[in-house]
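dumping this here before i forget
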Amino acid sequence: MTATRTRLDPSVFDLPVEKMRAGWYTDAYFNHTRAALLEDGRHPVVVMQVFQKKHSYLGGMDEAIAILKLCADRFEDLEVRALHDGDEVEPFEAVMTIEGDYTTFAHLETVYLGVLARRTLITTNTVNVLRAANGKPIIFMPARHDHHRVQTGDGYAAYVAGQIVGAEVGVTTDEQASWWGGRGLGTVPHALIAAYGGDTVLAATTFAQWAPGDMNVTVLVDFENDSVRTALEVADALGPRLWGVRLDTSESLVDRSLWGELGDFKPTGVNERLVRKLREALDAAGHDSVRIVVSGGFTVDKIREFEERGVPVDAYGIGSSLIRGSNDFTADIVVTDGEPSAKVGRWLRPNARLEPVT
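structure:
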């Protein structure tokens, strides 16, 4: 017997219910359509079918359902069937159908489509990165690259991706982790190092003295653009308290440790030669337990290349590439009052995987 899969409670999403009910977040033409139908006394019973056009991993479904439950006129009169967050979906596969009086939910189409588009994009991007990373943990770091209001759902979408792949995903803000009860994590940042006059060792030791015992202390080591030397100094100073060091060299710089080796490789940014040089130096100094985290311009392709070449990375920090791209959703009325009514090129696509939403 298949176990029943649960969905997040609608209250988790803290939706602006009254504004959604009033159509504030809705494309005006849907509000106008609904008003015209109500003025005419027309209440068509429709089947609305929702789909997208890529091979993807679904995100935002529980949030979309919450919008319908809390903001439709009479959700109890609707028959909603849907897939679950994290489900793998094919192009044009129906991920949700809504059957009922169209005027009771016409004003919500913009909102639930937008939620599905955003969250599915993040979930799919993160799944692809995790698979490229071969199960190594990633740090989900796009918070600084987008508006703060998207953090919560994006963080949950990344968490769902981790559940799909069975790999660890860390997020950097408490808000990103709030829907599943996690906490944000992070490294000793450049700002703290700058606050101590550019002294990475002093900043790291001060941070380690403050940090709770269960925190994995990870230190950025590129502040002076001499990452190998800095990493060794930090490892010597912190000893077993140091969990890892993070390389974040700018794509416009060549780390000082590589200045004598130029000529046969791309030397800028965080590159293979720099990572290997750091790993060798740490091991030679007896710091073989110190992990190496890399960040700065990492994409699926760059991670895949690192993994194929066996570059000794223990975790990847990924930022803006996880929120780039598109994964648009479409909703079509395909049946009206029991008769097919889809526009040319669209039709009802039954999907046995859809589950009733109660």
